Structures are given as structure tokens and as C-alpha cells.
Amino acid sequence: TAFLAGGNPFAGASVYANTFYSKRVEAAIPKLASGLSADKAKAVAKIPSFFWMDKLERVPEIANFVADAKKMGGNVVIPLVVYDLPNRDCAALASNGEYSVKDGGAEKYKGYIKAVKDQIVAAGSQKFVLVWEPDSLANLVTNMNEQKCQEAASAYKELTAWGLKEMNLPNVAIYLDAGHAGWLGWDANLGPAANLFAQIYQSAGKPAAVRGLATNVANYNAFKFPGGACPSYAESNKVCDESRYVNKLGPMLKQKGFPANFIVDTGRSGVQPTKQQKWGNWCNVIGTGFGPRPTANTGDALVDAFVWVKPGGECDGTSDRSAPRFDAHCDSPDALKPAPQAGEWYQAYFEQLLQNANPPI
Ligand SMILES: O=[N+]([O-])c1ccc(O[C@@H]2O[C@H](CO)[C@@H](O[C@@H]3O[C@H](CO)[C@@H](O[C@@H]4O[C@H](CO)[C@@H](O)[C@H](O)[C@H]4O)[C@H](O)[C@H]3O)[C@H](O)[C@H]2O)cc1
Ligand SMILES: [Mg+2]
Questions:
Q1: What is the DSSP secondary-structure string of 221-240?
Q2: Other beta carbons less than 10 A from residue 30's beta carbon
Q3: Is any atom of ligand 1 closer than 6 Å to the C-beta of 145?
Q4: How many CB atoms lie within 10 A of CB 359?
Q5: What was the pLDDT predicted at 4?
Q6: Residue 58 DSSP one-character state
Q7: Chain Cα centroid distance, residue 127
Q8: Which ipTM score applies to this complex?
Q9: Are 53 and 83 in contact (CB under 8 A)?
């Protein structure tokens, strides 16, 4: 397709920093703890992060971004996350979505995808980069023991292949979510993961709009671990950073007929090693900082860009044991508390990221 004819959709492009996030940062400034710089917070509002369409009612925001992006002129890409599968986040409780397989969720999801497609088609030549359904396929690799994942597995696969065909548009570049080094980088998981991603790509008819995979979305791993040695929490997993993960997975996928490129979420990876007590702890991890700034100059031919997919300051899940969607991971000793519901603004977490940013903001 025209957009991807040149290969890397981020090359020579400016990435749109959306007004939904910048408004949240503006509102955070008067509440900043003393000692934190309002100017630094303002600077973060201009760093592009992805907008998560985590419910149907958020889809019309796209039109606002398209109008706003027009003012920038030049080669702009609008970054969005498609994130509303039925039985979403099937192995966890914190980010469950509005649709469930049991309750006609597959048909409702098709309505959601069509609503996104309508907005993208209406945007004419405006270009979009889509991260596709964080955690979904990764959960099918490692969590088929979870009842909600078992129940959703065929829906995840069928709806993903169907959705990619629907979204195979000339002004779209798509990266399927591929978990991260600490999730699928283990020897036991790499093969099954490569098989599943290649299978989905084939069953979707190898869509030209699919550029590859997104890794480390909403997680904290380094792209390249400082000094090369793996942190203790990586235990026996030698694939302990995203650079090793993509350079292992990429050739496996190419061999299976899926010539994937990658984008890596560096939004919360500024502090290494992290303070995770267990590598599998994913919720509002303490001590983290904004990481390497978004760029297409990654130094790795397989990696199109470093991106900020999880918007820093948006919560991973509530720490309130009595609240809906409470997941014990968010009450872990290495999770910042008290935390609001997933997706809500978490002021203290935003301040933590700002304080610990590396490189500094
Ligand atoms: O050979 N060995 O010695 C060996 C040892 C251990 C092995 O097991 C592996 O251990 C890993 C942990 O170390 C597990 O990885 C964790 O899996 C969780 C889901 O279950 C993920 O959670 C998601 O995180 C998302 C944000 O990233 C959230 O948005 C989402 O809500 C949330 O659900 C964690 O990131 C991810 O780190 C693997 O499954 C597991 O297979 C395998 C082999
Ligand atoms: Mg989550």
C-alpha cells in the first residue's frame, strides 16, 4: 500500500501527540508535588503517546485528532491502540473490557472495528499507526489454563484475522501486540508465539497494512540492558531485553512467511534494572521512569521505532481490593498504591515517571 511502500511508516514522519493526553497532563500541572517542574510536565504533553480506544465511546475522538493533526502539515501519523476484544485481558482482572464472549461480544466487537474503520476511511489520506490488541495473542500462548482465555481463544483468533482484513487500508500501518521479552522470550514460549503470529498473519491473508509486531506495550523492559548482563529477575531467560527478543523472534517469523518489523514501547523503561520483585509483576511498578524518547532512529534495522504506547500516568489497574476489576498484581509490594481503575489518570505515577525520567525530560 502507498503508506507502507516506503517500508518504515515512522521514517520521515512526525508522530501526532494527542489532545486527550495533553489535556490530562495540563490538568496534572497544578497538582504537581513541590519540586517537580511544570515546564518538564508541559514538555511531556508534547511527547507523542498512543491513544487507547479501550471502549466504543472513545472511537469518535479520532475525528478530533484528524482535525488537530491537519494543523501540523507535513507527514504526520496518528498513533492509536485497538483494544476491545471480548474477554479482554483474559488472564488478568484489571483491564477487562466492555464485551464478553458469553454476551454476544464477537458481534459487538465487529461493530467496534467497523466504527474505527469508518473514522479512518473518513480521514482520507491522513495516516495512522495501529497497535493491535495488547496482551491478546500473548495470553493465548501462555494462559490457555485460564478459563476466560480458553473461552475466548477462537474468538481472539477469528476476530483478529477478520479485523486485520477489515483494516487493510492504504493509510494504515498495523503492529500486532507481541507481549515482551519477559513474557514470550522464554525458550518454552518463543516457538509457540512465532507459530501463532505467523498463523494469524496467514489467516488474515498477509495484509499489506500489517508491518509487524509491537513489544513491551505497558511493560518496563530495557531495549538493550545496560552492560548487557541480564537482571536477576530474568532468572534463566537469557532473552532479557527487547532487543534480544525482537532479534530472536524476527528471523523465526521471516522463516514462517511473516517478514515482521517491530516497534518497542519505551515509555516506562527509563530505570534499569526495575524494582520488580518478580518479572511477571506488571501493575503500576514502583521506581520506573519515562524512557528513551520516541524515535525512528533505533539503530536496529528490525525496529522501525521506539514509541510510547502506554501513556505515562494512565493507571494499569486499581489497588482497591473491594473495587470492580481488582487484580492482586496491583496490590503487590512493588506496585505503587493507592491506584485508581485501569486507564484512569494516576497523578502519583505520572510524578514518579517524571522524577525518574532517563534520559531526563
Ligand atoms: O523456563 N522457565 O524457567 C520458565 C519460567 C517461567 C515461565 O513462565 C513465564 O513467566 C513469565 C513471567 O516471568 C510470564 O510473563 C508474564 O505473563 C503475564 C500474563 O500471564 C503478563 O501479564 C500481563 O502483562 C501486561 C503488561 O505487560 C498487562 O497489560 C496484562 O494485564 C497482564 O496480564 C506479564 O507481563 C508477563 O511478564 C509468562 O506468562 C510465563 O509463561 C516460563 C518458563
Ligand atoms: Mg493492562
A1: --SS-TTSPPPGGGTT-S--
A2: 7
A3: no
A4: 10
A5: 67
A6: G
A7: 18
A8: 0.93
A9: yes
The CB density around residue 330, as the number of other CB atoms within 10 Å, is 29
Longest dimension (CA), the chain: 54
Closest approach atom of ligand 1 to CA 95: 31
Distances 83 to 76, 95, 105 between C-alpha atoms, Å: 22, 10, 13
273: CB partners within 8 A, 6+ apart:
225, 231, 232, 233
Encoded amino acid at 255, one letter:
Q
- Interatomic CA distance for residues 354 and 361, integer angstroms: 7
Using CA atoms, how far apart are residues 144 and 161, in angstroms rounded to an integer? Answer: 19
Up-side HSE of residue 323: CA atoms within 13 Å toward CB? 18
Cα 190 to Cα 239: distance, rounded to the nearest angstrom: 10
CA distances from 38 to 84, 139, 198, 223, 263 (A): 34, 39, 46, 29, 30
User: Could you tell me if the CB of 65 is within 6 A of ligand 1?
Assistant: no
306: which strand partners? 264, 295
Q: Which atom of ligand 1 is nearest the CA belonging to 219? A: 27
Low-confidence ranges of the chain (pLDDT < 50): 1
